[in-house]
Structure formats: C-alpha cells, structure tokens
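Late entry, evening session. Most of the bench is empty. Finally got around to the prediction I had been postponing all week. Sequence below, unchanged from the version circulated by S.P.
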Amino acid sequence: MNQEATLAVTTESTAKQTAVRVFGALCLAHLVVDGLATLLPASLGLIEIRSQLTPEQAAWLLGLGSLTSGLAQPLCALFSDRLRTRSLTVVGILLGGIGFGLLGFARNQISLSLIYILGMVGAGMFHPIAATTVAQLHANLRNLAAGGFFVAGMIGGVGGALLWPRWLAGESGFDRLPLIVLPCVLIALFVRSSHERLPSLKHQAPKPMDASSLGKNWGAVCILYGSSILRHSVNTSLVYLFVRWTQQVVASEHSHWSPAEIARAAAPTVGNLNAMMILGMAVGGMLAGSLISPGREKLPMIIVPLVFAPSVVLFPYLGIGWSYLLAVLAGAGFSAMIPVSIALAQHLLPHRANLAASLMMGGAGMVASVGPRCAEYGVTHFGFHATFLLVAIVLACSGLVCIALCGTKITCNQDA
C-alpha cells in the first residue's frame, strides 16, 4: 500500500472515530436534557400544591413549556444555519441545567413560569442542531442514526419520569434540585470538546437546488409539519390527562383525602405512566428508524397512527392496571415516525437542515402547546371518555394527513 492510500485509510478511520465520539456525546446530552424536561410534567401534581396552582394554571404552565421550547427551536435553527455553527447545543445544555436546577427556588406562579421558560428554552436550543449533526454524520443511515439519537432522549425521559416524582415527594426534594447543575456543566464541556474534532461548517454550505425541486420539497415538509403538530398535540394532551385521570381514580378510592394527599399518592403513578409512554416512544422510534429505509417513509407514516389510535380510547375503560400497556402503545403510535420525519425533512432541505429538524420537533411542539388546555377543557365539559376519544381521533388524523405525500415526488440535492 502506497503512502497516499495509507493516508486515506487513516483519515477515514479518524473520521469514523470522530463520528462515533460525537454521536455518543450528543446521545448522552440528549438523555440528560430530555430527562430534565420531564421534571415538571411528571411532578405536576406536587408542583401544583407547592405553588398553589389551579388546574387551569397547571394546564397553561404545561403548554408554556412546549410553546417556549418550540419557539426557541426554529429561531436558534435559523441562527445556526445562517452562521454555520453548532455552538448552541452547548449553550442549550447549560441553560437547561441552570433553569431546571432553579425550579427548587420557585414558590409562586410567576417565578415558576419564568424559571421553567429558561429551562425549556435551553432544551429547545439543544435539539435541532444536535439532531442535524447526528443525521449528517451518518447520511447513509440517517433514519437509524436519528432513531438512535431519539431513543437516547426517550431513555432519559423514562428515567426522569420515574425519578422526579419520587425525588420531589421526599424530604427537601425541591431544595436539592440545584445539585443537577454541575453534571450539566460537565456534559456541556464534553459536547464542546467533541464538536472541536469536527470540520468547521463555515465552508460546507450545500449546493443550491433548482427552484422547482425546492418548491416541491417545501410542500412535502409542510405536510410533515402538519402531521408532526398533530402527533405532538397527542403527546402534550396525554401528559395532562395522566395527571387528572390518575388523581380522579385516587380520589374515588379515598374520598376523604385532601387534595395534597391525593396529589402525593397519585404522583408515582403519573410518573410511571409518563415513563411507559416514553418507553413506547423509544421502542417505536428505534424500530421505525431500523426498519424503514430512506425513500420508503410514506406508507408507514399513514398506517402507524391509525393502528395505534384505539389504544388511546381505551384508557378510561380498562383502569390503571392496563394503562401502563396502553401508555406504551400510545407512545409508539404518535412518536414512531418522529425521527423518520426529522431525517426526511433534513434530507429534503439540506440548505436549511437545522430549520427542517426544528419544525418537526419544537416547531410542531410550539403549536401543540394548546394540547393541555384543550384536554383540560375536554375533561371539564365532556368527561374523560370523550376527551380520550378526541385525542385518539387527532392521532388518527396525523396519519391521514400524510396521504398527501403519496402524490409528491421527493427530490434532494445529493451533493449536499
């Protein structure tokens, strides 16, 4: 083997090692960031009592998190696309750690809302650039790479959903929240050092696409965006319904208990339901990323939500025991196609890859921030059975929307 061939092999080996290191760093960070983001949803009942929130205020607070995180994602993605930088992943990890660590000091609705916004903005900043980096480093396996990154976040979400209700229900649980800041700082530094091994994005702008292909691809991305909004709305609605429904079950069994006692008793079950839902999200995302080849995404996007929609309807009929299985199925139903949508959107808009990723995640979550408030309205005016049915219909519609993709020919700049 001559010197040039040896150098080429060495360079390729180094590039693969760098890709693996960056993938590992970003997956670890995703695990931590998504674990932090479950703090308030999984512990909402406890936080309601501590901060004296009404059910309506709690619903708006949940929606506020989705709104601010969702708004941060496309704005930061546009900034990153324009400046060709990955630095906002590091900033996002730091802000997330600080924001969620400070929740231990929040004692009223205003301080709770402001601190929660800080944490969710940090989580929003991290996601689109990190997801884009993962997919670009493994272009030939983009669905699988996006699925692996997605699953890392889901593992963190499961851990957070199980941990936080038990942590905060314990003595001095809220006072110990600032302890999470230091690990987040260390992970941010690890991600930063990993990014320094990657080539700069400054001189890697993709070649421009012709106007016809670009217009068709933007049309396909808009369809994916509409479907993602509906899927994320199912997620945010179920997070709220788990709290209210579980508290109703506990209250029916212990009618003499105070609201604080009901919230404490229901909190572990709410955390378990969130964990099971996130587990379903992880399994669904990983299977979809592994089994769906690039270019074959359209049919699964239609079928998967339709198949799993009935699992949402059954919650109030089968009780808490069966609800854990139903939560897994519901999570798989609305999230299996999320990593595939992210990878496909990036593929369609390589010149705006961060923006495309952000639309499938936070951009959709921003609109879906109305989910908890809609769920609260549904429970108040129609009851649990009708509200779960309506959420299932939204899930089914997220698949039906994708029928519009069947007549769309998807093209991409292969040199991007």
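Two things to note before I forget:
Residues 5-10, 412-416 have pLDDT under 50 and may be disordered.
The domain at 21-198+209-407 is CATH 1.20.1250.20 (Growth Hormone; Chain: A;).
Will write this up properly tomorrow.
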